[in-house]
Amino acid sequence: MENFDFPSFAKYEVILGEEFNKFASCGPCILGVDEAGRGPVLGPMVYGLAIVKEKNQKVLKELEVDDSKALTEKKREKIFSEMNNDDQIKKCLTYRLHVISPRMISCRMLMDKKGVLNDISHSSCIDLIQAALDAGINVKVVYVDTVGPKDKYQKKLQSIFKNISIVVSEKADSKYPIVSAASIAAKVTRDNLISNWNYIEGDEYSTKIIGSGYPGDMKTRQYLDDNCDKVFGFTSLVRFSWDTAETFLQKKCYKVNWDPYNVNKAKEKPGTKKRPAVTILNFFKKVAKKE
């Protein structure tokens, strides 16, 4: 029997700074973790880890990093471009990004468990820190923008990384420059991914106006309204698990009788010893033909 492997959408897409694997022999490093795209109904969530050599922290000031939300799009792109293309900066500052697809988010959140988005965020942060350690990077301290109660989150991280100083803080992206750098890398990457989204459903979707991707944006809501297939729902850009998306699915899609284990059928025949076999017909409901 072949080994089972998760589908590609159930894994992180990893994006590395060019010098990431060369930071193993450069002395103590400071790490920052932040994300972009937690709230939108469209697009991936990108978790970012920025790494700066302790002795070269001044590069963050020279780059004029700040909370990505406080910077203009042009300024964010300029900073991220310098992080990728300036040879001197690349030797001092690098990054690792985990791209969490809308489908991965939806699959996890549609499970019968509360707080899944926080679990995804925590796991991403843990995996990023562990990746730095696995690469041989000498991690002195990690600054993390909190997800959920900060004390509980810090305790969780500290229990895993016992020999590293962990600082979890609200608004860490505006307090700690290294977290700002992570925020910028994540934000610019997410924006670029959405602008150049690879629609597995067909190129015709690439010309659609999608707005900001946030549920309250009328352009985004119009996109969802105009592009909701009656059978398949939305494209891979959309997080099906968001309430906004679910509202359109309920309103515009065909109704499906979902009883995968035939629980309802078994209730109809209380004397039977086993549930009836499941067939494709179990998942649909007859609708009277229109005259």
UniProtKB/TrEMBL annotation:
InterPro entries: RNase_H2_suA, RNase_HII/HIII, RNase_HII/HIII_dom, RNase_HII_hlx-loop-hlx_cap_dom, RNaseH-like_sf, RNaseH_sf. Manganese or magnesium. Binds 1 divalent metal ion per monomer in the absence of substrate. May bind a second metal ion after substrate binding. Pfam families: RNase_HII (PF01351). Residues 28-254 form the RNase H type-2 domain. The keyword Hydrolase applies. Its EC number is 3.1.26.4. Its cofactor is Mg(2+); Mn(2+). Belongs to the RNase HII family. Eukaryotic subfamily. Endonuclease that specifically degrades the RNA of RNA-DNA hybrids. This is Ribonuclease. It comes from Strongyloides papillosus.
